[in-house]
Amino acid sequence: MTVIRKYPVKASRRPARFTLIELLAVVAIIAILSALLLPVLGKARGRVKTISCLNQQKQTGLSVQSYMSDFSSYFHSPINGNQIKWTNNLINNDYIKNPDILCCPAVGKYSASLNGWLTYGAIYTTNANSCISMKSPIFWETTRIYIFGCSWSISSQSPSFRMYPQNETSESYGRPHLIHENKANMYFLDGHAESRTRSSLGSVLTSDGNTTAYIKYAAEASGQCYISTQ
Length: 230
Prior knowledge:
Elements: H1 20-70, E1 74-75, H2 86-92, E2 121-123, E3 132-133, E4 146-149, E5 151-153, E6 158-159, E7 162-163, E8 174-176, E9 184-188, E10 193-196, H3 198-201
Parallel strand pairs: 2-7
Antiparallel strand pairs: 1-3, 2-4, 4-9, 5-6, 5-8, 9-10
């Protein structure tokens, strides 16, 4: 005898579909969350770039300190009579192996053909033949003396390898660039790097505690500098 078994037939289920109102509600929620999270994420990315910049300045600073150790405690001026910039000097003499550390990560990438112009800026003066020297009494408080950092040229709208921190009228030379949450990262003569606000950058102190009208390089009485021109 043949037994016929009957199995229950499952009812077909159509996939659930969102109504237009539900879709609009989801889109609105996503938009609100994005508006809330994007500033936070942007600030976090900015903080990462600030930390990366400070680390790069410390690496560059080690090369600067090594150079100064080899050249009687003198630091290369931003640019010398042979048009050799301080960054090129460090690279050409093998003090720096990776030129990328000379550029702030918070600014865009620039062509390498610009040959060292668009880097961190070293303090520039009216006399580019003078040099920073750790031996000079002008640097009696090295923790407050910055020698290079984030710099920006108003006229060229780009980083500058030199800066006039005390000259508010010059648009061709660099100024301290407040690119890190309205702060500029600076490397100091004692070997540390930190973010500084515009008001806290201050002026270079002389040996008697007074500030100079313009930041100047310290040089020996002879005015000679120990600069490699390779």
